[in-house]
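Hi there,

I know you've been waiting on this one. I reran it after we fixed the sequence typo, so this is the corrected version. Both the input and the resulting structure follow.
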Amino acid sequence: MEIGILLGGVALAAGVGGVVGWMVARAVRGEFASNRQEATALAKAQREELREMQDGFRVASREHAEANGDAVRKMFADLALQLDSQHSRALEAFKDVRETVDKQLKELRDDN
């Protein structure tokens, strides 16, 4: 006499339930182990991909920072040259004004 029991989609006969149940449990454990291995491999691949992307970002970021540093240094060098040029022109203009004032003062003294 066989009594059918449906367990996890597998019909078990009452007489061989222990063997079939053991086989189902073994298959489920195998599937779980396989899933864990796949998940571990996938997680490892994702970590490796993330590390590679971070390395790429790190290199690009470093290159960008170096380029910005060079651009800033060039801008400050240009600014220094402009300020030096303005300083020289301002000194020349000041000397011209001083000479003009001195000349006018001398003329006023001579007239008096």
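Quick highlight: Confidence is low (pLDDT under 50) at residues 1-16.

Best,
R. S.
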